[in-house]
Design the sequence.
């Protein structure tokens, strides 16, 4: 069983914020596979479905970003999920817009949601960092992540990136994600050349 955790803040006012790109990934998976069985438990919204005979849990913690770890731990304990089967999707200010990086293990890189999960389950899980770019016009990093994406972001790269990541999601499990990152990079670059 795999657990995909999208990090974000609950509430309509945060829905389109850069910090909520993890929620957007989970929502894209839900939409793509017509997953409808939302359960509200363990301080989160979670969905169960099977893909390629593999049981999968999709989770959006409702504890706010910096306290995501207890929700993740509760779900893992309830379903007996090993940390190595956890994939955390989150925003990354130190990656250019539309770039992704997948890694297994390591530190939190200054991301408080990831930090809290590490404090609860250790470092041995996957994380997919989704680049949101550095702040522009002297905006502080905290204000940048807690502000909505521009309409052009959705039109120029974000919607396409979400679709491609969901298309290629099976490759996360096969070789520690190298094929996943390569395929996403190739497809996003092809689409940029068409523009």
Sequence:
């Amino acid at each position: 069983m795999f657990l995909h955790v999208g990090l974000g803040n609950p509430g309509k006012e945060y829905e389109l914020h850069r910090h909520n790109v993890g929620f957007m990934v989970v929502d894209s998976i839900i939409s793509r596979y017509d997953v409808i069985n939302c359960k509200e438990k363990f301080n989160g919204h979670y969905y169960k479905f099977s893909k390629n005979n593999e049981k999968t849990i999709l989770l959006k913690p409702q504890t706010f970003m910096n306290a995501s770890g207890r929700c993740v731990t509760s779900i893992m304990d309830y379903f007996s999920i090993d940390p190595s089967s956890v994939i955390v999707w989150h925003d990354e200010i130190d990656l250019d817009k539309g770039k992704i990086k997948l890694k297994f293990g390591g530190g939190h890189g200054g991301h408080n949601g990831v930090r809290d999960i590490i404090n609860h389950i250790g470092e041995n899980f996957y994380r997919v960092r989704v680049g949101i770019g550095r702040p522009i016009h002297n905006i502080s990093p905290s204000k940048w992540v807690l502000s909505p994406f521009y309409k052009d972001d959705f039109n120029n790269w974000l919607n396409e990136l979400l679709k491609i990541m969901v298309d290629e999601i099976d490759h996360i499990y096969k070789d520690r994600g190298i094929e996943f990152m390569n395929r996403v990079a190739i497809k996003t670059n092809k689409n940029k050349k068409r523009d």
Residues 2-194 form a domain with the Rossmann fold fold (CATH 3.40.50.1470). The chain has a mean pLDDT of 93.
